[in-house]
Design brief:
The chain is mainly alpha-helical. α1 packs antiparallel against α7 and α2 crosses α5. The chain has one domain. A hairpin with a 2-residue loop joins β1 and β2. 76% of the residues lie in helices and 2% in strands.
């Protein structure tokens, strides 16, 4: 399997992927800092004040990209988990493991900023709205996947059990996305759609997209860094297991 003259299949091996991840992390981190910095500057200092919500609306430049990333990362995590189940690929399981904490962080950030936006807009920090509730469930799903993995000592069983749970939880993602259409909710509808013109000023849309791409690059950098940690941790556990087995055999003799 080659693309642009590079045989990407060789990077399915942890030994080959480890140095590749190390070389990509600085570029992704630098891009994230630049994009998020520019996006925040445009969103907080250049974008016009909303005629209905005033200055309070500016929280959406963090809230909306965080909410998008919370759903996107869950789908990506589940896809890697499914790939791991189908191909019995260690790297896929490790990728799913590395994505989960970042997805949970963005879900928490979306809920936190949503509460900060909801207080001046709705007059309450929290309401049991369909979208808010389903987003909260997504946070519990991330936590469940991570807790299930850590509760099982055997790596193979932990990989498969957490992968199955991740795949089952995908059903919640379309519920979050379509909740404002399926139910009568307080949460406003989408301001950016693939099938319709944006309902915001160009500067607002620019800030939103820059923040989204910045969050995406941040996710790549953090996930790759965590992948390297997972690889080292697993290699240490395997080495320790082999040494323990050899010691048991020696003692038995």
């Amino acid at each position: 399997m080659s693309f642009m003259g590079v045989n990407w299949l060789k990077y399915s091996s942890p030994q080959a992927f480890y140095p590749l991840a190390g070389s990509l992390i600085p570029w992704c981190a630098a891009a994230a800092i630049l994009l998020i910095g520019v996006g925040l500057y445009i969103g907080f200092f250049i974008a016009p004040t909303d005629f209905q919500q005033g200055e309070a609306y500016r929280i959406i430049f963090v809230h909306v990209p965080a909410a998008w990333m919370s759903m996107f990362l869950y789908v990506v995590m589940a896809a890697w988990a499914g790939l791991g189940l189908g191909l019995n690929a260690r790297l896929s399981f490790m990728m799913a493991q590395a994505i989960a904490p970042t997805g949970a962080m963005f879900t928490f950030l979306a809920l936190l900023t949503g509460a900060m936006w909801g207080k001046p807009t709705w007059g309450a920090w929290w309401v049991w709205d369909a979208r808010l509730t389903s987003e909260l469930i997504l946070l519990f799903q991330y936590a469940g996947v991570m807790l299930l993995r850590t509760s099982i000592d055997d790596l193979r069983r932990a990989d498969r059990a957490s992968a199955v749970l991740a795949l089952v939880g995908v059903v919640n993602v379309p519920i979050i996305y379509f909740s404002v259409r399926w139910w009568n909710t307080l949460h406003q509808g989408a301001s950016v759609s693939m099938t319709a013109a944006p309902k915001m000023a160009a500067t607002m849309l620019t800030a939103m997209l820059l923040m989204t791409v910045g969050f995406w690059m941040y996710s790549l950098a953090v996930t790759l860094a965590r992948m390297r940690c997972v690889m080292v941790e697993r290699e240490s556990l395997l080495s320790w297991g082999k040494q323990a087995s050899m010691q048991e055999v020696a003692e038995a003799r």
